[in-house]
Each structure stands twice: as structure tokens, then as C-alpha cells.
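Troubleshooting entry. The earlier prediction with zinc ion gave an output that would not parse, so I re-checked the input for stray whitespace and re-submitted. Clean input:
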Amino acid sequence: MTPDEERLLRRAVELARRAREDGHAPYGSLLASADGTVLVEAHNTVRADRDISAHPELKLARWAARELDPAAAAATTMFTSCQPCPMCTGAIDRSGLGRVVYALSAEQHAALQPGGGFPRVPQEGPALPEEARVPVDGYYT
Ligand SMILES: [Zn+2]
């Protein structure tokens, strides 16, 4: 990590600290262009928005997919206070961002939570694959 990248990562941690001070969950992220320019910043607003998806990483992934062309998105780096959760990781992958740099790993984060985080919801299937494939078949050609 370069000194400039370390400065950007420290900024993400600062956003997390300020979020907690303001009564939000303590997570912050920013998106930087290849030259280190901060394009957008976000913090967790799950409580204020009453929206379980209001994670900063997801907000930035949505912003990039909406506002940047694919080449510009691929040239960005997300700096985030904690390793993105599975929900945000899926959105980041779909957004086409270039890379993610995080300050605290998911494992280190889980160690700070009583119970270690959210339980996994069981998933069952495929239950009707022949019927369910009909509306999808041919869509991506
Ligand atoms: Zn998340």
C-alpha cells in the first residue's frame, strides 16, 4: 500500500468514527479514482434510513454503477473501514469497481461482535429448475 492509499484508508476509518459519533453504525467508505481523487464518500445509515441495505460499500457500488462508465468504474478503488459483507461484496462485483482495500477484516470485525455476527438463513433448491429456467433462457443472448 502506498502512503497515499494509506491516507485514503485512514479517511475511511475517520468516516466510521464520525458515523458512530453521529449515532450511526461505525462504518465508512470512499471511492477514489486512479490518481487518488476522492469521488464520493459514505457511511452506514441503516438505523436512520431503517434500511438493512444502507451500508456505505453498497451505496458506493450503486453510485459507481449509476454514475461511471465501465472503464471509469474499473479504474476506481474503494477504501473501506471494514471488509465488505457478503451483501456488499455481491454489489461491488456487479458494479465493476477495480479493487477494494479494507482496514479491518471480516474475521477481526466478527471478533468485536457478541455472537460473531448474523446467523445464516437456510436456502433450499433448486426446486423447479425446468420451470424457472423458461423466463431466463435466451435473455442474455
Ligand atoms: Zn455490507
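This one parsed fine. The CA atoms of residues 15 and 81 lie 8 Å apart.
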